[in-house]
Amino acid sequence: MRVLPPIIAALALVGLVVIPYRHHQNAEQEMREPHPRVTSVEASIPRINYIEQVKDIRRDLEKKSHIQTLHHNPRDRSHYVEHEVVVRFSPRPEQKKIDELVASLDAKIKRDFEQFLIIKSKSLTTKQLMKKLAEHPDSVFAEPNYLLLPNRKPNDTYYTEYQWNLPLIGMEQSWDVSEGSSDVIVAVVDTGVDLKHPEFAGKLVEGYNVLTDNNKPEDDNGHGTHVSGVIAAKTNNADGIAGMSWNSKLMPIKAIGADGSGSAVDIAQGIYWATDHGADVINLSVGNYTSSAALKEACRYAFEKNVILVAASGNDATNQPSYPAAYDEVLAVAAVDHRKERADFSNFGDYVDVAAPGVDIPSTYIYSDYASLSGTSMACPHVAALASLVRSVHPDMKNRDVMELIRQSATDLGAPGHDQLYGYGMINVNQTLRQAKPAKPARAETKQTTVGGLLNKFFMRLRFGFE
């Protein structure tokens, strides 16, 4: 395994800094009592403080003059790009009319996604652009260009020692039911994937880079590679880690850059592309506290195409709804630790559907490496992988039925029934798959076609009469 630079090695030894949930003071969380093996100084897999890195991304964004901040309350905030607007027309005007409109706004078309446009003005603010475009008779919506941030017994080398998360949710019994199907594709709309990582050899289908408009979704951040490994890293190959689905395919979609931030429009375009190219499940380990019309339309489009959408609830220990997780078409995932207790950082609220392991999760990382990360981003792919396993044993099950099965088969945690911290509870993969597996059809009586069988049938008819 590659030796990480000193700064990463140092991060591996630093405890995560999180915002505690103030109404749950007595809960001893994973951040205060780390997993003993994964966080040991002798561990082979480095522990990276990704939650603090995301906070750094936010701070860096807020220093940039062209980035505006929306404050939802004293602590939670969203960001958008000033002088830019996302607009959708229906019907779409002729290109000549669009060009004339853009010129009148002292603007240019920054990106054209067919479904919507990103328009950037030299002189008008985002609010001024929204007002003018809202007056257009064919405008369906005009909104800011919002930024989203990541919410981050096989024989594989690291499985027994480090992957506590998989036995916790019943994976070892579940692999007896299904190891996944190569016909099922899970799209990961994120920072891309390490295309040369040995854990993904033979596991990838064609992907897409939204940022550069090509089919090279190479990960230059690490987040997407980590998420992808949880879902479907090569398993039982006597090396590295084990993915939850041994046979499912991964579709990497790069919609987030090296700095860890991406726009709602880029995420939306990734959802459209994945849906149109055969994805059965889409993992969205990203979030923002302001709903985007473009993102919501993309989620609705995928849902209506029978795709299962899974998203992270967020890492700010707040009940502020995060999108896309809070959309009705999406399964929202909170995070728990190795003691099945809510992680300090995990967002909560009525929109949370289920919880999954999200603290000190070992998985793949860029440069053909491995790392341990924490976040609802890491909890989310556990649920996406479960959805892919359900589709493997019951390919005809509708997406809404898969989502409901995952909710109802979860292990109840916290207050009885659905609650704000855990939703319906922690996913129980074994229980879900056994409930999902179609009942075997009754064995049909075989017709006797031998000579003895025909003679027996003849004499029976002689006895009882021919019909």
From TrEMBL:
InterPro entries the record matches: Fervidolysin-like_N_prodom, Peptidase_S8/S53_dom, Peptidase_S8/S53_dom_sf, Peptidase_S8_Asp-AS, Peptidase_S8_His-AS, Peptidase_S8_Ser-AS, Peptidase_S8_subtilisin-like, Peptidase_S8_subtilisin-rel
Location, primary (coarse class): secreted
GO BP terms, alphabetized: proteolysis
Subcellular compartments: Secreted
Domain Fervidolysin-like N-terminal prodomain: 76-145
GO cellular component: extracellular region
Residue positions of the active site: 190 (charge relay system), 223 (charge relay system), 377 (charge relay system)
Gene3D superfamilies per UniProt: Peptidase S8/S53 domain (3.40.50.200)
Keywords: Hydrolase, Protease, Secreted, Serine protease
Signal peptide stretch: none
Any one GO molecular function term: serine-type endopeptidase activity
Domain of life: Bacteria
Occurrences of domain Peptidase S8/S53 (ranges): 182-425
Family to which the UniProt record says this protein belongs: Belongs to the peptidase S8 family.
Name of the protein in its database record: Uncharacterized protein
